[in-house]
Queue: 2 jobs
Job 1
Amino acid sequence: METLNTRAAAVASDILTSQESNQAVVLSGAVTASRSQRGWLFGIGTLGILLASVLISPWTATQEAPAPIDPTDYAARTKHVLSTTPLIDGHNDLPYLIRNELKHQIYNDKFTFNTGLLSNTDRQKVRDGMLGGQFWSCYIHCPKDSETKEDVPLDEPTWTLRDTLEQIDITKRFVNEFSDIFQFCSNSTCAREAFANGKVGSFIGIEGAHQIGNSLASLRQLYDLGARYITTTHNCDNVFGTAASTVTAGREDKGLTPFGEEYVAEMNRLGMMLDLSHVSHETMRDVLRLSEAPVIFSHTGAYALSKVLRFAPDDVLKATAEKGGIIMITFVNRFLRPDNPDAATIHDVVDHIWHVAQLVGWDYVGVGSDFDGTPVTPLGLEDVSKYPRLVELLMERGATDEQLRKFAGENILRVWAEVEKVAERIQAEGRKPNEAYWEGRTWVRSDMNAPIMFRDSLGKRVPSYLGNP
């Protein structure tokens, strides 16, 4: 240290001596003066750099590398991992709670997100849980007949699309209202930037393609509003495919419909992630066969461990990995322990994560809690604050920090980025928006006497609501 300081002081002295010599020549003329001034400025700059090095070098020389973390200190390791990698949850239903209890009104004293909520998610729980990103579910239930309690016919008009738009609206307003902690994002790059900014990246998923009005045009509009994944079915069949709940009820698993194949193609073209949570096993297999992009399970589990038909069997887990997708494990008691839901604990969730990781690798597993979408969660995973404990238990099982970075957020960010790349390629190839429509759709027009564009249109137009051609 003394040698370095002495050397810097000597160089600085030489520079000053040189500048004094240069000043003696200033009177000789304007040209010489100009050169002398440049030399003087150069010397001062160099002197500043050297002096800075003299001042800084003692500090840098005394710095030591951070002490290595004890491999058995799982809490410290978890804090380090989640401080440097975003933990991104694939599914949280808080917007639906806001709809049901506040009718989307959050600008009042009733919505105590800052000071605490009885449900799974609030400010303190988010911070304690070291949450780094969240797909907020813009969920609206499958429409039911008020008398029979059965699913309404697929072509029956409902308010589902309107309600979905309101869910998107409240999600965005919620994120904006608490913008000191959240940042809305519609691409994978922004998700990383939000985490770097100390914010929880906030993204939109739609939990059921019954919410898009049986229309690919509506799908495109929801994409434009920021939705980045759609669960292909919820607990009802739709015009695109078969739900797991249908098969559970003893009905046939028909997989994707022909219109569902068009839906998959348009989702790929848009760059929207296909979510296979809630769908039947044959629908899972059909989507995996057709999709050009990786798929996700935003909140699911391993069928090998829990014989629940909305969980993915091993062949589907393998196909998902081969496609480059991700299986995000849920926290729903009745699915994790269908034999005894009350006995479900955090260890059951660890079991499902471990099964997927051991079967297909740590590159294809993540977390999708379903917080605020289920009345009861496993013991040890009571709310959003408990994510670190989940990571600690995975460490205790033998997971490395690198594997847990993938699990926490790197996997879903990789999948999202790949889906975006596939869309860029498809669009660069010139593929146009898909104009297919559901064959079961009822078309009507007004009865006004509008002009026609083509001579052969009479008798072929959409009929009027009075039945006129």
Job 2
Amino acid sequence: MSVFLSTLRKQLCTINCKTLFLDSTQRQHRWFDVSRTLSKSSTELRRSMHRVETIPVDSRVLNGDIHILTPDGVLQAHYGPFDRAEICREYNIGPRDLRKLDPDLRINVPAISVRHGKFILFSFRRHRAVVQPHRSVFFVPSIEKIPFEPFGIKNVAEWEKITHAYRRNVRYIHQVYNQRYITESTKSLSHMPFELQIMEIIGESIAYGLKLKTQDILMEFETIRQSSYARISIDSLRELGFIKSKVDRHHRNADLAHQAWLDLLSYDQNMMGLYLTENRQSDSSDLSDVELILESCAKQIAEICRLVYDLKDSVQTVESTTGFMLDAVRNHLLAFEIRINIITMGFGIGAFITAIYGMNLYSGMEEHPRALLYVAAISSCFAITSIVVGTYRLFKYRRVKLHRPNQNTLSL
């Protein structure tokens, strides 16, 4: 009992000493409190950042800028944010159509919607536009405001690249329209209505953007292909996987853009609805201009799709070639391992024979003057013979026959 009480007293004294030491240390050194405060503040900051990233975008506000191109070639810019209800009333756009034009949405399916007598809506990856009889309205994302939604952009540099692509397309459409329909030399040649002129230029801009993206991917692919053929490494294989996923994504985008133009071309009712300033009869004999424009745009995007197909085939070729090279290296390693095993087997046979003659048993050869030479010669012969036979069989199996021997075929 006394031993138990003494042990308990020692434990209590130890706990009290530790408590007093920590209290005195915290009183003497204030940085304990500072570190605790900093850790708490960093934890709260991470939690607040997580809350900010998951806050959805306000459905009543349209974060973006609006550029308006008029038939006289003047481009006006209006900077947001805007109220969605006011945008719908001012531009006579429905709420569902405005969702297709929202520049905050990064992932969308390309679509061309025709509202008879009202407008033509273009919703592509870097083109959000509404073409009306007297103006063309382009929706461009704002550089200062990054959308924090489940599919939003968390990288500022990437968002600036996206906004630059939107603004580049608007500038391209403005410049081409002024060069083609505003100058004195070409003004008399333009007999199409304003909406068809803008639709043709938008189609060219979509094809031009896809072409630029294809060229960038092609240049990156050439670098990766040269590095893959020069030396296979983990980095080159990783880059090859990245470029393959990028080509597949670009392939899907090009196919969807091409399919959007083909869908518009396949319905005569939608083609008649493209005339916003003129009333056309419900027959297909008066749609030559529209068909030519749509076929031209579809053909341009089809050529880009062909380039993307060729690029995808090249990526698959490099992937297959890299696989063949890795298989060849693997075969060399396996052959080297088999050679080592053959040599080990040969020496093992010789060691087995030597071990039999070296047993502590009477065989009658212990007193022979040349017993050692005989045993060594026999063991060496067996070892060398097994190594030579194994190597010969290995070379025979590795031999690839590129043609079959001629066989006598039965005459009919």
